[in-house]
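Good morning C.,

I know you're traveling, so I'll keep this short. The sequence:
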Amino acid sequence: MIRPYKGVMPVIPSTCYVDVSAQIIGDVVLGEHASIWMNTVLRGDVHQIRVGKNTNIQDNSVLHGMLGKWPVLLGDDVSVGHMVTLHGCVIEDRCLIGMGAIILNGARIGHDSIIGAGTLIPEGTVVEPGSLWLGAPGKFRRYLSDEQKASILTYRTNYLGYKEQYLRELASEQ
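The tokens, ready to paste straight into the viewer:
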């Protein structure tokens, strides 16, 4: 469901895929070719949410800000795994956020980074670009190799393909 809040309607380009079960509310802007998957919630009621181009937000994830203080900002080519919570944080370009990760208010994930599955990134944490963080609470483990950084885009590419197939199927139903 896509709906306004306080008169602000989400902005969703025609190149995007938003599953019918997703909830996109209020001050949310999606970049070209973004995809929002099953049962995902982007709740732009208390602060803005911005999702970059080619970014995918997978099943059962929740994005929400903090009133007047922390928006949710995602760069381009980001893959957000299943059941991720992003609350008032910034995710820079080309990041992979593993399944079940939680990233809290004021955290900033530097470009080309991987946050492992189940990792908790506490409030205000700054993750340097090109880093791997794991654990609860999350801790820096090592810098990524160029090959590992490039592998992040595999997920983006896969989800662009899924998005196109879902859009084709929707078009054929009409």
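Safe travels,
E.
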